[in-house]
Amino acid sequence: MLARDFKSFFETSKRNGIILSFGGDISENVLFSLGEVLKLRMIQGETDATIAKRVFSIFVEQAQNIIRYSADKLPGAKASCGMISAGMIVVGVENARFFVVCGNEVPKADAAILHERLDHIAGMSSEELKRFYREKLRQIPDEGSLGGSIGLIEIARRSSAPVEFEFHDLGGERSLFCLKAYI
Amino acid sequence: MDRIQIPATPRSPEVDFDFTAGRFRLSGESYPEDAAAFFGPLLQSLRTHLAASGSDPIVFEVALVYFNSSSAKALMNLFMRLEDAAGDGRRVTIRWLHAEGDETIAEAGEDFASDFSHARFDLVETSQTGD
């Protein structure tokens, strides 16, 4: 059973073009290590350098969003080693295009704000995104933001299609937030 | 002020702030664990230097190959101080280095360039192999 169950898990991943998948507690060190293997995988796959940079950039922004904004944080993480937060991050190739998906729990109150922000960003042209990004760079961060408010714009700018996102009500005070970007 | 030299790590840039010579340089990768903790002291020392050192010219060179959005924010904070100093009459040159064919970094340079009107902002293309 053990190997058979995992075989189907691996095969499903492969069939979906997944080259990297991680679920669980994410720290900055985990982000760094996953990023290193992602880079190597893309070098080995002879990915175009510009595409590889975009994939890596979106991966970093998404992973840092999980670390900073996931509602599911490992308690007791010392300030010196930073936050440790639960979520999932998946990188794969679909119809010859890379994609990066992340998912994490967010407080319901944050979900509404995030939804609004993403609606705004997803409706922008690349020229508008560029202008919005520059505007945000010069501003002080949004309240409650750890300086990552431009992270979402960065993700949208590096994407080749509007970002897809969804919120799923988990009951209680939380929603599951998922974001998918195509490169 | 004492020169600040910090070696590069795989995720944070090499820093060389030579206050006496008026030469500043950041190079390498930049997505530090905590961008505010990394860049905060650098911003502070640049501010102190600008306030104290009269009008000696400054050359600030950026040769980053990748930086995340938190680092972009920090760069903007450094640049705003430099632009202000240039507005006050100091000769300030920012040299933004990007490897040939690296559209991402070149485009980022263009983004930043539009915020300068007093400081000089040079986009410098380098060969693939070095800078």
Task: Describe it.
The complex is a heterodimer of chains A (183) and B (131). Chain A has helices at residues 2-15, 28-44, 49-69, 108-122, 126-138, 149-158; strands at 18-26, 85-94, 97-107, 164-169, 174-182. Chain A has 183 residues and is of the alpha+beta class. Chain A is globular. Chain B has one domain (27-126): Transcription Regulator spoIIAA (2-Layer Sandwich), CATH 3.30.750. Helices cover 37% and strands 31% of the residues of chain B. Chain B is built from three helices and six strands; from the N terminus they run E-E-E-H-E-H-E-H-E. Chain B has helices at residues 35-52, 69-87, 103-113, and strands spanning 4-6, 14-18, 23-30, 58-67, 92-99, 120-126. In chain B, helix 3 (103-113) links the parallel strand 5 (92-99) and strand 6. Chain B is globular and about 40 Å long. The mean pLDDT of chain B is 93. Classes of the chains: A alpha+beta (183), B alpha/beta (131).
SSE pattern of chain A, N- to C-terminal: HEHHEEHHHEE
Helix tally of chain B? 3
Instruction: Characterize the overall form of chain A.
Output: globular
Rg estimate of chain B, integer Å: 14 Å
Q: Give the number of DSSP strands of chain B.
A: 6
Report the CATH C-level class of chain B: Alpha Beta
Overall mean pLDDT of chain B = 93
| Subunit organisation of the chains | heterodimer
Task: Compute the number of strand runs of chain A.
Answer: 5
Q: What is the topology, as strand order, of the major beta sheet of chain B?
A: 1-2-3-4-5-6
Number of domains of chain B: 1
